[in-house]
Amino acid sequence: MSSILASEEDTSTFLKTLESISHQQMIICAQLDELITLMEQPSESVLEVLEGLLAPMEQNMNNLSEALTVQLKVN
What we know:
- The chain has helices at 8-39, 44-54, 61-74.
- By secondary structure, it is an all-alpha fold.
- It is elongated and about 55 Å long.
């Protein structure tokens, strides 16, 4: 069985990347929690939070609403 040895720099880069991913996931989870809370009391701010969640996924409200409209018409 062979093994790969990483340099200290590679290990540091890898750990920083993992830390960045973890931080992004924490932010997204907090935004989802906020969205769920806001959806219990619908208002304009729900759409603002949803729009903020869609941005990192390279989506926007117009594309989403068009896709939902098409889907609703089909069903």
